[in-house]
Amino acid sequence: MLSNIYHQPYSRQWYVSFPIKADRIPPLYHEVSEPTGIDLGVSTFATLSDGTVYQLPYSLKKAKIKLGKLQYRNRNKQLGHRKLGIKASKNAQKFYRNQAKKHADIAQGRRDFLQKTTTEISQKYAHIRIEDLNVSGMVANHKLASSVVDSGFYEFRRFLTYKSPIYGTVVEVVDRWYPSSKTCSSCGHVQPMPLQARVFVCEACGNNCNRDLNAAINLASVSKNRVRMASPELTPVE
Ligand SMILES: [Zn+2]
C-alpha cells in the first residue's frame, strides 16, 4: 500500500507516506459556538476575536536568522559549473547540503506549528471567519512578499478549510474589500489606518483597540452578505 516515496536533493532525507484507515470522530461539542474572527498578521501570527493569540515559535524565527547568516557567509560558494568545467569544492558541497537540510527543518517546523494551531482552533471554535487573503497580490508587493510566503497564511487557511468536515466546523471567508482594519469594532466608523499603526484609535467614539484584535472582532461581526463558505482550492496530500 505504499503510495508515495520521495527524496529531497542534497538534504539526504527520504520521506515515505502511506494511507491508513481510521475512523474520524467529530467532537460533539465546541466550546465556542458564536462566529469567531481570525486576523492574520506579521507581528502576531493569528489574533482571534476573543483575544486569543497564536505566535510563531521563537525557535523558528531563530532558525531563519541563523540560515540567513549561513547563506551570507557562504555567498561566494559555487556548486560547480558544468559548462565551464568547474567542479564544486568539498566545502561548497557541504554548504549546499547543510543549507538544504536547514530549509527542510524550517519548513517542517512551520508545518508542524500550522497543523497544531489549526487543529486546536477547529476543536474549540465551531464558527470561524477569516479574511480572504489576496495572496498573489500581496506577494507581488515586495515589502510584504517574504513575510506572507514564509508565515504560511495560505496554508493556515487551507488547513482550517480541509479540517472543517473532520471537526464539524463552519469556515467562512470575508470578502476581500471589507475594510476590517480600518473599521472601528465599537461604533463602525471607517478611517484610514497606516500599515505600521499597532493601535486603532477611533476618531468618532474614542475607542482604543489593538489593531489585530480590532480587525478580528470586525471579521466576527461582519454582515452575512460579505461572507461566503471557504473552499479548499487545494486538497491535502493523502
Ligand atoms: Zn468608534
List keywords for this structure.
six-stranded mixed sheet, alpha+beta, globular, 10 strands, binds zinc ion, 238 residues
Architecture blueprint of SSEs:
Blueprint: E1 4-8, E2 13-17, E3 36-40, E4 46-48, E5 53-54, H1 58-73, H2 90-124, E6 127-131, H3 135-140, H4 142-151, H5 153-167, E7 170-174, E8 199-201, E9 208-210, H6 211-221, E10 227-229
Parallel strand pairs: 3-6, 6-7
Antiparallel strand pairs: 1-2, 3-4, 4-5, 7-10, 8-9
Helix pairs in contact: 1-2, 2-5
The protein binds zinc ion.
Please give a structural write-up.
The protein contains 6 helices and 10 strands. The protein starts with a strand and ends in a 9-residue tail after the last strand. A hairpin with a 4-residue loop joins β1 and β2. 22% of the residues are buried. The protein has helices at 58-73, 90-124, 135-140, 142-151, 153-167, 211-221; strands at residues 4-8, 13-17, 36-40, 46-48, 53-54, 127-131, 170-174, 199-201, 208-210, 227-229. It has one domain (30-229). Mean pLDDT is 86; it is low at 234-238. Strands 5-4-3-6-7-10 form a 6-stranded mixed sheet. By secondary structure, the protein is of the alpha+beta class. It is globular and about 70 Å long. Residues 184, 186-187, 189, 202, 204-205, 207 line the site of zinc ion (ZN).
Give the helix level as a range of percent: 25-40%
Rg from alpha-carbon coordinates? 22 Å
Strand and helix order: EEEEEHHEHHHEEEHE
Bound compounds: zinc ion
Question: Percent of residues in beta strands?
Answer: 15-25%
Mean pLDDT: 86
User: What is the general shape?
Assistant: globular
Taking the alpha carbons of the first and last residues, their distance comes to 12 Å
Q: Could you describe the largest sheet, including whether it forms a barrel?
A: 6 strands, mixed
Please give the domain count. Answer: 1
Count of helices? 6
Total beta strands = 10
